[in-house]
Input
Amino acid sequence: MTSPQESAATAGPVTPARPAAASAIGRPTPDDRGPRDRRHYSLLARDRRFGYLLVAPATLVLLAITAYPLIYNIWNSFQRDVINSGIPPTFAGGENYKRIFTDNQFVPALAHTAGFTVVSVAVETVVGLALALALNRKFRGRGLVRAAIFIPWAVPTVVSAQLWKTMFDPQTGWVNYVLTSLHLPLANTTWLAEKWTAWGAILVADAWRNTPFMAIVLLAGLQVIPNDIYEAARIDGANAWRTFLRLTLPLLRPALMVALIFRTLSSFLIFDVVYAMTGGGPGTSTSVLSYLNWQAFFVYADYGYGGAISVALVVIALVIAAAYVRVFRSEQVL
Amino acid sequence: MMKWPGTARPAGRSGSHSVVSAHRNRALAVALSLTTAGALAAAGCSSSGSASAGKQVPASAKQTIVFATQGLGAEGTATQAAVKAFEKAHPNIKVSILTLSPTADVAYQQLTQRFTAGSSTPDVITSDVIWPSTFARPGWLANLTKFHPDTSAFFPGQMATGQYKGGIYAIPWFINAEGLYYRTDLIKTPPTTAAQVFRDAIAAMKADPKLKEGLAFEGDKYEGAVTAFQSFGGQIQPANLNNINNPSNVAVLTMMYDAVHKYHIAPTAVSTWEESQVQSAWLSGQTPFALNWPYIFALSQGSNPSYPAVKNHTGWVPFPNPTGGKPQASLGGDDLVMNAKSTHQAAAWQFIQYLTSDQAQIARAIAAGDPPAVKSAYTTQLYAAAPYFKQEQAVFSAATPRPVTPVYTQISSQLQTMISSVLSGQATPSAALSATAPTVKQLQQTAG
Output
């Protein structure tokens, strides 16, 4: 970037009267010819070099903390490397990747993860949208409610998962207590002891924490929709449902897409809730990809296979993100 | 620390005098951004450790050693007291405590990360009895043979947990074994067969509707499931690992399944229970039998807080083997190990010797209820302060270590999944065993 002070300094000694703005935008003007021209361009080139110099440290840091680990991990994924085996790493070729397909835990974990992602994102979107619509209306104490609704998001995931584990405890938790008091079914359920009830508990814990995020992003989207459109719709005689479908939803699309991309990716990488609540159990019925990945690294100390699972996770996440961006683009064209 | 050429270059020398000020600004900006990057890079560099143990500091020199240990509550206080007493006896050595996670699995990962990074600290580490061979195989632990430890001073089962390829890598600190607590007011004679445990539990629940369970044990998918399985009679000694799908393991898993799903003496919730849930079930008096560790004895007999249901009604025996063999109380407890890269090994050894002295062992037993690993610490002085240690001997004598193998963590992970799937009713005992056996065999073979 060329600062005004800088351009004044460069142009100064030659043509003191010339307006600084001309060189500030860096485009040669008709009287900007002759020997000064070359000097001007070389300054531009110097500016560019200077720009590179300025971003270099940030680039280096980025390379060090994202590119290096990523490449190192890819390198690892082609190694036979169990760090506590006392055996030095050797080249393994595609062995670790082949193992992903023969591992009888990977495909079930992939299915669990995908299923969880679809259901949790759907639930969180619908509930989050409802909350956002409610919070977008004017009512007394709205500021307080808006702040309060954000509290779950402020609780660290592991803490909230541990809290939910306690709440779902059949003897000491309030979930079964409430169900019993209200004479509702499932009052004697040991939630974390069976596959589907365990998934239900995980879903509730995850949605409790992440729905507020959805709500806030969508609320921000709602607030930028100008009010006069709604007035026009009202004058045209559109009812509330029609207004929602034809106006609110299409205009909310950008915010919805951002929220969906964020939530889908973080749902897909779910780890802490499962780790704290079930440890992938009972058996392996709530095992998810990130849990498998953690297990490979930290239980089996297998950096080769762990690396391969990580790479697989990155690839799947990229595909999801790309799919969203594609949908997003084509919608924009309409 | 790296030197950045950019920061040293005088500003503005290359340009004409008219651009000097701009150059100075640029140079400043570059210097600033480079310093930031440099600081980050330096922070990144400083964590890499040396390749091998550095020059040893003699024991007599003034120094600080780092002791990594778990420790909340009474155990933490007891550790601090022991450190103070040691520092008083050795004024030139300071001990700094590095607190590890109270969750064994997490502490294991914390240590693995430190060792992998090649750190020379901590010097002395509290190690679960199942870890020493795992840590010794990659060369992370100092071989303590050079200090000529008195191996006969300790219970042999626990001493064996520190041995790897002929070396001694761990010294027992305190012993632990899992046994069956029974209510002496509800159960007239201590059970001698597993069938009797079940009969008594059913009868007790029938007689007293306030009892919610007949038998409480930990079945959550974690290390505790494996110790429970072993304490119930599961055969997981190294010789069995080539094929864990044997009749006695089927019998033990079937018994665990039956307790939950056939006789309903254990709640379905045991598949999510850890020691703390078993502890509250026992202390609140809602179960006549509970499988747990010796710390419960101290709690049951304590007066602050007091648990009237179990106070003076607590008995403890090894769980009778359902296949008629010898009972086997799963061995727990902690060892002390030394970092191979420590430069304070002489002082570290003095600290280990102090922690395993009779006086330190008795003090810890009385303050925290941790049973001494040193046989000679079982004295009248100990019994006078805590008479229940006398009763605990029966369980300790049945103490059976979990398999001493460098791949124990991996094998345990397989066993945890197996037990969890049986307790939750997802797989029959024999199906779960035949699904797990090949992987366990394969893992054990990689151990070499």
